[in-house]
Write a structure and sequence with these properties.
Blueprint (H helix, E strand, L loop, with lengths): L3 E4 L4 E4 L18 H18 L13 E3 L6 E3 L18 H14 L1 H14 L1 H32 L1 H25 L15 E4 L6 H4 E2 L2 E2 L2 H11 L7 E4 H9 L12 H15 L2 H20 L15 E5 L4 H6 L7 H10 L3 H4 E5 H10 L5 H7 L1
Antiparallel strand pairs: 1-2, 3-4, 5-8, 6-7, 9-10
Helix pairs in contact: 4-5, 5-7, 10-12
């Protein structure tokens, strides 16, 4: 490797560190030294300015647009990712086309990516174990510090904080109304059209793609903004009520809502597949877990306290006094379904703390924030 090089512009022999690296040059270094290159760049910029040539080549329009070279749509520049070495500072393909291409590439090479991940974890077992051990050790302190800072902010500026919360809630409500209107305004399955009981569903069961966006987590507001900007992204999003959405989730990956005519046949096939691939002890334990859950549902009335829903796939345990944080402190969020159900059965006054609610009523009152199901408001009217 060269240690010295002659600059043809200043005619001086300089060390290799005085020349910028070049991937195409035979010597691996640019012809001119850094000082001469910098001086030439300044002279060229001044000459272009005197001649009236635009420099730099980035457009200065108040609302610039660009044509995507893949879908050929003219879109705002904000819908293109930034790229430093591009002429206008942005990629040639829009963000939506890049996302579609990335998903297609992953699906085509899914097994290869999975194998690469397994090999990486095997090569770095000690490193990953040390990282997660340190992360778990400091997680509680980080959570306490975050809660402390929020509490301090709330105590110091209660009016400002409340104003910010009201503004954020109003903005989210407006975005939700616009996004839901673009997706049809009603549940794809049961035709529920009350916006207070609707949520966004992923027909392709690819919601994991929205959990991480780059290095950050996708918030609900950001997802709504995406839908308003790009639409349903080729059928990637649709509206579902909380019951239908969670019913699909309970049915397993790729399952249908319990309202669907093929649901019973699908469940029977899933049970047969489970019995064929699991041991007798595992099958017995699963059957016992289902019996415990049925006992809890029977103890709590077997129907939603509000709307009277009786389909077990749409029911969940609700905390009457909104004191679920007590169970979370006890570690209930880490409990299995069996352990939590046994805890409820062991309580003599479980009907005082717990009740059954369908996902529509449970999530609907949680979204309101005041513990009142929207059905009660309709009854009051």
């Amino acid at each position: 490797m060269l240690t010295e090089k002659l600059c043809p512009k200043c005619k001086q022999v300089k060390t290799a560190s005085d020349f910028a690296k070049s991937a195409t040059a035979a010597s691996g270094l640019y012809s001119y030294c850094k000082e001469c290159s910098k001086r030439s760049c300044k002279e060229r910029r001044k000459a272009n300015q005197r001649a009236g040539a635009p420099y730099p080549r980035v457009r200065r329009d108040p609302d610039p647009e660009k044509t995507c070279t893949r879908c050929l749509r003219v879109l705002p520049i904000g819908q293109f990712y930034k790229q430093k070495d591009a002429a206008d500072g942005h990629t040639a393909h829009c963000a939506e086309c890049q996302s579609v291409a990335a998903r297609a590439k992953y699906q085509a090479n899914k097994s290869r990516y999975a194998e690469a991940g397994r090999q990486y974890r095997q090569r770095n077992q000690d490193k990953l174990r040390a990282y997660f051990r340190e992360y778990d050790a400091t997680r509680r302190d980080r959570q306490k510090d975050k809660a402390r800072r929020r509490q301090t902010y709330a105590e110091r500026t209660p009016e400002t904080r409340q104003r910010h919360l009201n503004t954020a809630r109003a903005t989210t409500a407006r975005l939700r109304k616009d996004a839901y209107a673009l997706l049809g305004g009603r549940c794809y399955c049961c035709e529920m059209d009350d916006i207070r009981f609707l949520t966004i569903d992923h027909p392709g069961n690819d919601g994991h793609g929205d959990i991480g966006y780059g290095s950050s987590r996708v918030s609900g507001r950001l997802l709504l903004q995406r839908i308003i900007t790009y639409g349903d992204a080729g059928g990637r999003y649709r509206l579902a009520c909380f019951n239908c959405n969670m019913g699909r989730a309970k049915a397993g990956h790729g399952g249908e809502c319990p309202h669907h005519p093929s649901f019973d046949a699908q469940r029977s096939q899933q049970e047969a597949d489970y019995d064929a691939t699991h041991t007798k002890a595992q099958r017995r334990r699963r059957h016992y877990d289902q019996q415990i859950k049925e006992r809890v549902f029977a103890l709590l009335g077997g129907r939603c306290y509000c709307c009277g829903e009786t389909v077990s796939h749409f029911l969940t345990v609700d905390h009457i006094q909104d004191d679920g944080y007590i169970d979370r402190k006890r570690g209930a969020h880490k409990m299995s379904t069996y352990t939590f159900c046994k805890h409820i059965l062991s309580q003599e006054s479980s009907h005082v703390r717990y009740r059954l609610a369908c996902y529509n009523c449970n999530c609907g009152r949680a979204m309101r924030g005041d513990g009142v199901c929207p059905h009660h408001l309709l009854q009051a009217i």
